[in-house]
Every structure is written in structure tokens, then in C-alpha cells.
Amino acid sequence: MDDDVVLSAPLFATMDADETRTLFESMQQIELSRGDVLFREGEPGDRLYVIASGKIKLGRRSNDGRENLLSILGPGEMFGELSLFDPGPRTATASSVADSVIYELGHDQLVEWIEKHPSVAKHLLNALPRRPRPTPAPRPARALPDGPARGAQPRRDLSTRFGEETDEGIRVAHDLTQEELAQLVGASRETVNKALADFATRGWVRREGRAVVLLDMDRLERRAR
Ligand code: CMP
User: 93: Cβ below 6 Å to ligand 1?
Assistant: First the structure.
């Protein structure tokens, strides 16, 4: 297990090494298998999670019942912070798309920690993402270009998170099904499939199961604009 990945999370960024270690050691480790649901949208929650390894997807149901994929997070990233300081219903469902190890920090634990280390509170508030708790109103579909460009855009995000340089190009082991990829870009499975097939024919990408090798990053970048 690579502790360094967790210790590099923004949560710890401004703490000194001893403080970081103590807080980290008080966090509970959780192992998830692919497909496990950690929590569901609407459930009460008061814990924050830091990813040590694997991938976590965050999804929200839209009014028409469709699942929107908000984000795929990887090692060193955090989620669940909305309920950490403000315990309440989870604003999204979190599940693992690959075998994952995550660390949990509870609200009570955090309060106790802050009482002992008041100076850390200020840093913590700066380190956590400023994401407003969404209102119950449905989230509008993400405005993305139509057609093949839809397929190009999210992979840039996935590629910076999960990309691995190879001789041929960047290999992105996204671990997502086609359905999940489509939910991530807010397009239909057919559109995403068609875009990927089109890119493959042009020699811009090569598909390998739940991974894709980005062979021509320049063209993909241009297409995503
Ligand atoms: P919480 O509401 O506690 O549980 C679900 C988590 O998903 C939430 O905290 C945030 O950490 C995360 N989250 C909510 N909305 C988004 C979003 N639009 N993009 C990325 N992550 C989100």
C-alpha cells in the first residue's frame, strides 16, 4: 500500500509531517471490490474518503431517472467532504469501478482532531474543495459539443487522472463499461461507441477492453475543443 499517495491528498497538504501521520493513522482503511457501492445518494453521511488505490465513480440520478456520472476519481483524490462538515444526505452515489483501497475520516473524529490541533482547522478549510451542496433541483445535462467531440472530451480528463505514458501514446485504463463512459459524457452509448470507432478508424485511438490508447493526442485535443 502506498501511503504517500494518501498523504499527498489536499487534506494533508498544509499540515506538518507529524500531524499528517497522526491523522492518517486514525483513519480507517476500507477495501472495495469492483462494483461495490460505498454509499448512495440521499443516504445520511458524515464521512470523507481519500483514495489510496483504484477508482471511484460518483453518480447522481437525474429527474428522468437516468444516472449521470459526475466524476471518476483516482488515487490521492477525496470525496464525501460535503457531509463531513455538514452531515446530511449524500449528494451522489459512490461506487468502485475497480478494486480500491480508501481511507475514511469521520465527522466526530475530525472535530476531536481539530480540538487538539486548532491551527489545522484553518488549513483544512482551505484544502477542501469548495463545492456547494446542490439544491434538489435536477442538474442540467452537461453542455458538451455534439457528435464525435463528445467522445473526445472526457478522455482528456480520464487521461490526466489515469493515463500512463507508453511508446505508442497514453494508455488510459478507465475500467468503465461503455454505458458508464456514456454517462460520464452525458451522451448515448451509441454516440460514444460511434465516436470511438471513428477515432479508431482514423488511427487516433486504439481500444483495448476497458482501456484506450490515445495514439494522436493533438488531433483528439483539437476535436474536443
Ligand atoms: P457528499 O455529498 O458527502 O457525498 C457525495 C460526494 O460526491 C460529495 O460529498 C462530493 O464529494 C462529491 N460530489 C458531489 N457533486 C460532485 C460533482 N459535481 N463533481 C464531483 N464530485 C461531486
Answer: no
